[in-house]
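Morning, I've got a small favour to ask if you have a moment. You're getting the sequence in one-letter code plus the fold written as tokens. Thanks so much in advance, here it is:

===
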Amino acid sequence: MDEVKVVVAHSERATLRVGDVFLKVDADQARIDVEVEAMALAPVPTPEVLWRKPPVLAIAALPGTTLGRLGGPSTGSPTAWAAAGAAIRKLHDAPLPLRPGRAGRSIIALAAELDDECELLVTNGVLPADLVTRNRQVAEAALRPWTPAFTHGDLQIAHVFVDGDGVTGIIDWSEAGQGDALYDLATFTLGHEEHLDDVIAGYGTDIDLDVIHAWWSLRSLLAVRWLIEHGFDPFSPGCEVDVLRSRM
């Protein structure tokens, strides 16, 4: 019998692996709806949906390995990172899905959420005030008008699989929808700034680096408390708090 491996688990959802099958358990069926719909529309390789019986979605494992993870070393070559950039560009150029995604929150709503979170981080003593203030200043550059694109919405490097120098698939589409393309690029390179040039080379167009830096700060500020509350450690080397410190 294949071993059951817990890939990730917290109060909102869990993902288990049994052999070559991933079982995603999510109490919010709307997230699963978004994921299935996005995988069907995305013009990049995605996992095969094997079956669905709420609250469980079963998908096939992808060939290859991930490019790495936040807080860990990258296992991919510069060519592989560039190939990922080209795949992301293909996604962003695709016809828009109907739904707004996580990367598509309004500027006003996002600014209000960010200000509230910054206040809580300081008031609760989670992060020093100067660190929060500086990164809130950096994050301001992300709060600008943008042209909607087909975005993944949670494009961590652990969600992109490669085999050699080619992309074999992208997983975890529950936050997909219309959004800011630079949010995806920033999420993908978060904590791996050394590969940003490779990704941009593959993406194939000029990128406003100030906005990428802004999204690194903004995403990290919004993530720290959630990660702590759900059993993760944003203070681990190379993770969100180190990303915030790098902007000082």
